[in-house]
Amino acid sequence: MIVVTGAAGFIASCLVSRLNAANFNDIVVVDNFSVSKKEGNLKGKKIKEYVDRDGFFEWLDDNYEEVEFIFHLGARTDTTEFNKDVFDLLNLNYSKKVWNACCEYQIPLVYASSAATYGSGTLGYDDEEATIPLLQPLNPYGDSKNDFDKWALEQTAKPFFWAGLKFFNVYGPNEYHKGRMASVIFHAYNQIKEKGSLTLFRSHNLDFADGEQMRDFVYVKDVVEVCIFLMQHRKNSGIYNLGSGKARTFMALALNTFEAMGVTPNIDFVDTPESIRDTYQYFTEANMSKLRSIGYDREFYTLEEGVKDYVQNYLVEGKYY
């Protein structure tokens, strides 16, 4: 059996689909299973068992001998949430329990970290583990992810294989439920569909023109391919960046969305809200050499390819992956 936590969510539900496509059908999905996510993201998938998040460790105590691998992708991901207790409970302490269980039962583990750990990027975006204790995230979500990365590296007891993945700006199908935390592409599509125009944040940094803020946008289909690779590889434990390796502008994202929809570009700018202006990242780009160095050689979707696939094969018809 393969366990996927956060399985009703965006990335994890795509991973379940990819596992099914590779003929892994004994999937145990762990989540709190809100109706909207379960009915959409998990509908039609081959799943062996549904386990509630709060009962997972009791279930694992009874079934660990049958568990081959754990993907721990469940987390609170709201970057606008500032209640540290929420992140300590769901992102830090729950993850510690997953780690300790994997140590006790010798189960290999891949878990979700985040590029939010890099903060403003003053120390760069290299996934060298020596720099992790020096990072200064810009919000409690990033803190929670970095706190767990630091904790994991400090442990003497480790799963025989483990990997933490610093997800950059992931986009793609199965994020219908995410509301304001969905990708910019998702929101751009819906704005253009409704109004025929798109609004982007104005730059408040003299080094960047309006629309020229840059992110490393990575398509969710690439994310799940890396997860599959690590499950099969099971060597070279550590913390890895997971982005496309190529920063692109929000303007490029917008223009590609208009093109995929067959709509003439019409873009306006509004001030970035003051509530996030001081913590706004103007540039992120994953250094992907570490993952490449252990043998991952698959090409990543370009922004053009990913946006076109996402818009035309999923968003237009409201389809799931």
Question: What fraction of residues sit in β-strands?
Answer: 15-25%
Task: State the CATH class of the domain at 2-170 and 217-245 and 286-300.
Answer: Alpha Beta
Structural shape:
globular
Structural class label: alpha/beta
Would you tell me the overall average pLDDT? 93
**DSSP summary: helix tally:** 11
Name the CATH superfamily classification of the domain at 2-170 and 217-245 and 286-300. NAD(P)-binding Rossmann-like Domain
Low-pLDDT parts are none
- Tell me which CATH architecture of the domain at 2-170 and 217-245 and 286-300 applies here: 3-Layer(aba) Sandwich
Percent helix: 25-40%
Main sheet: which strands, in order across?
3-2-1-4-5-6-11
Active site: 141 (proton acceptor), 178 (proton acceptor)
Subunit structure: Homopentamer.
Catalytic activity: ADP-D-glycero-beta-D-manno-heptose = ADP-L-glycero-beta-D-manno-heptose
Binding site for substrate: 169, 180, 187, 201-204, 215, 280
